[in-house]
Design brief:
Layout (H helix, E strand, L loop, with lengths): L14 H20 L3 E2 L5 E3 H8 L4 H6 L2 E3 L5 E4 L4 H10 L8 E10 L11 E10 L4 H17 L6 E7 L3 H17 L6 H9 L10 H7 L11 H16 L5 E2 L10 E10 L6 E9 L2 H4 L7 E7 H5 L12 E5 L2 H16 L4 E3 L5 H11 L3 E5 L1 H6 L1 E6 L4 E6 L3 H10 L1
Parallel strand pairs: 1-5, 7-8, 12-13, 12-14
Antiparallel strand pairs: 2-4, 3-4, 5-6, 6-11, 7-9, 9-10, 10-11, 14-15, 15-16
Helix pairs in contact: 1-5, 5-9
Protein name: Histidine--tRNA ligase
EC number: 6.1.1.21
GO biological process, one term: histidyl-tRNA aminoacylation
Length: 416
């Protein structure tokens, strides 16, 4: 008989893994609520052009990593590799461009065909937020503060550093881009093959290169700060002042870039050394052309995303949920009565397990190990008198309780 395994690059979320995952997303929802963000959910697959247009045909995600397929109707569809493009598409599709700002968050699976390695999967999960209609650098600072609060709430505040940069406005960026192209043209024979192709299409992405031969050239590359115009410099200074007002510490890192044309001004990453080599756990930036790419007006936005699996690997595993009450019926008639009692207890909000497997000692061992607070014994004599034997597991005290009173007795015990 065939033994099936999950597809390469995927992972089942069970037990502790699922509890960690739920802690990350649950804490995210708590923090988003404090900042007035509402949850959206977009389809797991979209028209391929949603991602090809938004991410750029030259990006590694589009050219190498997207799961693209043709459906039975001949349409080209793609499993979403990230969340922002679908959110921008949803804004336009649902005619919400006149109802700004929109403060939204999302969480769910994403898909990229890449070489599986530790902490990287072909199906992975992201949690992210977008502020659509971010009219000022103050809003950039606020959404970065929300990211900081989220990471602190997960217990990661001492292990992370916020790195911040500016890409300026389009005029500043284009002037810098021209200077970069001229510089790298002089050293084209020393660039990696990937970076030579990027030089033609997307030269800013050379700054992201991990190839040693490319990185050796970066120290003498033109610095963006020399190309910031007055408007961009004012935006940058206002952002830093707002972050200080929100109490967000940061360091400036001029090497943080985003290669896509619609990114502008603010880009940032929260990084940690706890994953071995320095790793980014949350990243984002301001973008201004994406909604327009989807057929809407030009709308300034700021957003960020984080990998749930990566965050889950950094946090303490939550304790497993346990039942408040375990019922131990003795005999078939008691089993049916246990069903009736469990319904009343569950309707009152208590968590209940009905233990039927094994002898009484094995059942009690499982209950004690589970961490349940009470055990409820039900035998033939109890049935005849319409009572149960209730044991308080912490104190080991036992009392006889009429079936009609069991809900109120347990509710009082839980309250105390």
């Amino acid at each position: 008989m065939a033994r099936f395994r999950p597809p390469r690059g995927t992972k089942d979320l069970l037990g502790e893994d699922m509890r960690r995952h739920q802690k990350v997303t649950g804490m995210g929802k708590t923090i988003f609520h404090r900042y007035g963000f509402s949850q959206w959910a977009t389809p797991i697959f979209e028209d391929t052009h949603v991602f090809a247009r938004s991410l750029g045909e030259s990006s590694d995600v589009v050219s190498k990593e997207m799961y693209t397929f043709e459906d039975r109707g001949g349409e080209s569809l793609t499993l979403r590799p990230e969340g922002t493009a679908g959110v921008a598409r949803a804004l336009v599709s649902n005619s919400l461009t006149q109802a700004l700002p929109q403060k939204i968050f999302y969480t769910g699976p994403m898909f990229r065909y890449e070489r599986p390695q530790k902490g990287r999967f072909r199906q992975f999960h992201q949690i992210g937020a977008e502020l659509i209609g971010a009219e000022s650098p103050f809003r950039d600072a606020e959404i970065i503060a929300m990211a900081r609060d989220f990471l602190v709430a997960l217990g990661l505040g001492d292990d992370l550093r916020l790195e911040l940069n500016t890409l300026g406005d389009k005029a500043s960026r284009m002037a810098w881009r021209e200077a970069l192209v001229a510089y790298f043209r002089q050293h084209e024979d020393r660039l990696s093959e990937d970076s030579r192709s990027r030089l033609e299409i997307n030269p800013l992405r050379i700054l992201d290169s991990k190839a040693e031969q490319d990185r050796a050239l970066l120290a003498d590359a033109p610095a963006f700060d020399d190309y910031l115009n007055d408007e961009s410099r004012t935006f940058w200074n206002e952002l830093k002042a707002a972050l200080e007002a929100f109490g967000v510490a940061f360091v400036e890192n001029p090497r943080i870039v985003r290669g896509l044309d619609y990114y502008s001004h603010t880009v940032f990453e929260f990084v940690t050394d706890k994953l071995g080599a320095q790793g980014t756990v949350l990243a984002g930036g301001r973008y201004e052309g994406l909604v327009e790419e989807m057929g809407g007006p030009a709308v300034p936005c700021i957003g960020w995303a984080a990998g749930v699996e990566r965050l889950a690997a950094l946090i303490e595993a939550p304790v497993a949920d346990v039942s408040d009450v375990a019922i131990l019926p003795m005999g078939d008639a008691a089993l049916l009565k246990a069903a009736s009692i469990s319904r009343s207890l569950r309707d009152s909000g208590l968590s209940v397990s009905i233990e039927t497997r094994g002898n009484m000692k094995k059942r009690m061992d499982r209950i004690v190990q589970s961490g349940a607070s009470h055990a409820l014994f039900l035998g033939d004599d109890d049935l005849a008198r319409d009572v149960v034997q209730l044991r308080h597991l912490a104190s080991r005290e036992q009392e006889e309780v009429p079936v009609a009173d069991i809900v109120s007795v347990l509710e009082r015990a839980r309250a105390s």
